[in-house]
Amino acid sequence: MQSEHNMKACGIVHKYGDNVDTDVIIPARYLNSSDPKELAKKCMEDIDADFVNRVKLGDIMVANKNFGCGSSREHAPIAIKASGISCVIAETFARIFYRNAINIGLPIIECPEAAKQISAGDQVEIDFDSGMIYDRTTGKEFKGQAFPEFMQQIIRAEGLINYINQKQEN
Amino acid sequence: MTQKILAAHAGLESVEAGQLIEADLDMVLANDITGPVAIHEVAKLNKKTVFDKDKVALVPDHFAPNKDIKSAEHCKCVREYAKEHGITNYFEVGQMGIEHALLPEKGLVVAGDTCIGADSHTCTYGALGAFSTGVGSTDMGAGMITGKAWFKVPSAIRFILTGKLGKWVSGKDVILHIIGMIGVDGALYRSMEFAGDGVANLTMDDRFTIANMAIEAGAKNGIFPVDEKTIEYIKERSTKPYHVFCADEDAVYDETYTIDLSSLKPTVAFPHLPENTKTVEEAGDIKIDQVVIGSCTNGRISDIRAAAKVLEGRKVADGVRAIVIPATQAIYLQAMEEGLLKTFIEAGCIVSTPTCGPCLGGHMGILAAGERAVSTTNRNFVGRMGHTESEVYLASPAVAAASAVTGKISEPSELGL
Q1: Which of B104, B202, B296, B388 could be disulfide-bonded to B206 (CB atoms 3.0-4.6 Å)?
Q2: A16: which chain B residues are within 8 Å (Cβ-Cβ)?
Q3: B46 vs A72: CB contact, 8 Å cut-off?
Q4: What one-character-per-residue DSSP string does B277-326 give?
Q5: Residue to substitute from B46, B48, B81, B137, interface A, most A β-carbons within 10 A
Q6: CA atoms within 13 A on the CB side of B121
Q7: What residue of B is the nearest CA neighbor of A34?
Q8: What is the pLDDT along chain B (417 residues), one digit of tens a residue?
Q9: Using the beta-carbon criterion (under 8 Å), do A92 and B185 form an inter-chain contact?
Q10: B42 vs A contacts (CB less than 8 Å)
Q11: ipTM higher than the 0.90 cut
Q12: Which is it for the CA torsion B304, B310, B312, B315, positive or negative?
């Protein structure tokens, strides 16, 4: 489970390959809704129809390079977050997905070693403060790339909207 | 070139790759899919008013004309927001077109601008020598209210274009060739800058098509130098002041590729990634069920003309559905006046009002299991145009039109053209 106080995530891994695009994360045929709960029911449907049945609150998604490529639909990170996923680890993220995830408060970490070595079904724990990723199944540890201070501020504010409000109040 | 535009909009002398900056925005765009999410988000902001009602564009084009009740509610949400906030550049069905064809046509983006849009193909306006990039709804909403956005300054890859395209070879073949060469993450987080004397031989429509698909290589933006063709295009359409930025002689690039335009051949991207490119010659015998000619990538007048030239006096093959979608009302009208719509209808095509519809599997031509389409759109991911077991082959309007005639992936030369 992810706790907002100590910024940790812990869960079972769902593993995917290269170039997971936003059309398979949330197919456009479902974009006539913007309700997170409705979107979550269709998350990953076109590449992993059973994902929505398997996923449990706090689980972790791990993928290889260019995760979230394709369209700018914010519905993609919204669907992943609302499905219960507490963090996405990938070798690299497509840039719009990267921004969107931070802006809506879905934690993501770039870590090529973790992306390669963590397997589906592993129990993984992440400490966001240190950027450390612990694979409790294999005992391996990985150091994820830390966010620049500016992005950490957005994440701490739980998204861009709160960040802007806080900045204007100051 | 990108770095210079960003520096100017951040009030800085210069910027360098990796630097985080906050830049002033000249245009902020959303559509009927991304707009409602942005509108919902900005309702949580303390400041409610838009930063400049002339610098926001709202275009219902994806699931418009409304494809179902939920889409109708989304379009209504955008319409009511535009009315409430006095958004100058709201385009209702009847005036609207596919956003990335419409904004340049209306003169809303010019050289030197910095522009964000909640649509990944916002990178299209790089053809005008603007910095333009796709963002999500929250970024768009924040930009619409504050007039600013944060960027990590990208490094750049340079593509030096030389020579001239051959007959029936277009901007689409150029960008498909490049994506095939560098891959769908080949330009990830970076800027694709086009240069070289071959640029002068590309039409503005070709440049829009090339910049449009920069995102398909993972790029933050694609950008062309400004030349006489750019200035002429802008002056005909806009009264906005434009600013010409040039890349420094000693500018630093991560990589440089040189591409001889005359060596390129009609190219097609096989399922399910835009990087899976082959020349049409190498494609083999691929039978098809549907052809789509249109989209923000290839729905401009030269695209429609190229398709009409191939289809003139010919018939769409039995068993093939050919759907032609001019990208804006102005293009539609021009195609009508030039007699191109008659050519399409006589050939057995249908001609639709502007919409993104089939490109993203929304409406106006969805594929069933096992069906194949040749499409002038920009993505061929699993399920992009319909069933997960359908297939999309990306190609130019000329190749799509030739394929409609033969019923398999073909180029115009196979028809004796």
Answers
A1: B202
A2: none
A3: no
A4: EEEGGGS---B-SEEEE-HHHH-SHHHHHHHHHHHTT--PPTT-EEEE--
A5: B137
A6: 23
A7: B37
A8: 999 999 999 999 999 999 999 999 999 999 999 999 999 999 999 999 999 999 999 999 999 999 999 999 999 999 999 999 999 999 999 999 999 999 999 999 999 999 999 999 999 999 999 999 999 999 999 999 999 999 999 999 999 999 999 999 999 999 999 999 999 999 999 999 999 999 999 999 999 999 999 999 999 999 999 999 999 999 999 999 999 999 999 999 999 999 999 999 999 999 999 999 999 999 999 999 999 999 999 999 999 999 999 999 999 999 999 999 999 999 999 999 999 999 999 999 999 999 999 999 999 999 999 999 999 999 999 999 999 999 999 999 999 999 999 999 999 999 999
A9: yes
A10: 161
A11: yes
A12: negative
Instruction: Give residue limits of the domains in chain B.
Output: 2-259, 268-415
Phi, psi of B102 (to 5 degrees): -70, -45
Distance in Å, alpha carbon of B165 to nearest chain A alpha carbon: 28
- Max intra-chain CA distance, chain B: 64
Q: Which of B74, B118, B379 sits opposite A70 (nearest CB)?
A: B379
C-beta separation of B301 from B336 below 8 A: no
Chain B residues close to A23, C-beta within 8 Å: 360-361, 379, 381-384
Set out the domains of chain A in order of their start, with CATH numbers: 8-169 (3.20.19.10)
Chain B contact set for A99 (CB, 8 A)? 135-136, 139
One-letter identity of residue A57: L
Chain B residue with Cα closest to A22? B381
CATH for B268-415, options being 2.40.300.10, 3.30.930.10, 3.30.499.10, 3.10.450.50 = 3.30.499.10
Instruction: Tell me the shortest Cα–Cα distance from A138 to chain B, in angstroms.
Output: 30
What span, in angstroms and rounded, lies between the C-alpha atoms of B176 and B346? 31
CATH fold for the domain made of B2-259: Aconitase; domain 3 (3.30.499)
| Count of alpha carbons within 13 angstroms of residue B347, beta-carbon side | 32
DSSP state of A144: P
Task: Find chain B residues with C-beta within 8 A of A165's C-beta.
Answer: 44-46
pTM for the model stands at 0.96
Strand pairing class (B27-31; B131-134): unpaired
Q: Which of A97, A111, A120 is nearest to A48 (CA)?
A: A120
Q: In chain B, which residue's Cα lies nearest the Cα of A48?
A: B388
Q: For residue B66, list chain A residues with Cβ-Cβ distance below 8 A.
A: none
Amino acid identity of residue B156, one-letter, is A
Nearest to B409 by CA among B314, B301, B247, B269: B269
Indicate the SS3 state at residue B119: coil
Q: Do B134 and A72 touch (CB under 8 A)?
A: yes
User: Who among B134, B139, B360 is closest to A28 (CB)?
Assistant: B360
Closest partner residue to A95 (CB to CB) among B40, B220, B381 is B220
